[in-house]
Amino acid sequence: QVQLVESGGGLVQAGGSLRLSCAASGRTSDTYTMGWFRQAPGKERKFVAAVTRYGSTTGYADSVKGRFTISGQYAKNMVYLQMNSLKPDDTAVYYCAAALASKFATREAEYDYWGQGTQVTVSS
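RESULT FIELD:
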């Protein structure tokens, strides 16, 4: 069992920055990939970014490349999403997720544990 808790969401103006945090607890040593997903109003949940244990591999959705950075402090069971140059289209509930499979995971179905989400709202 792995528990995930997100924090750091809020209201920002376009062009601003936020850093989301995900605190993991439980059997965190079994996880291979940590990821971030988001769900905008009326839209499907979509992949944002992911990183494998020890930071050996990272990946990003095309919509956030060059603006968002995923990183981790694995000894502290923490994963972060630094979001810069925010746009109104980034408005969504952001979810932290963890995958057990020993491969880089980018699909929602590959993830085994999910946080409750944190709201990010970007005003124009």
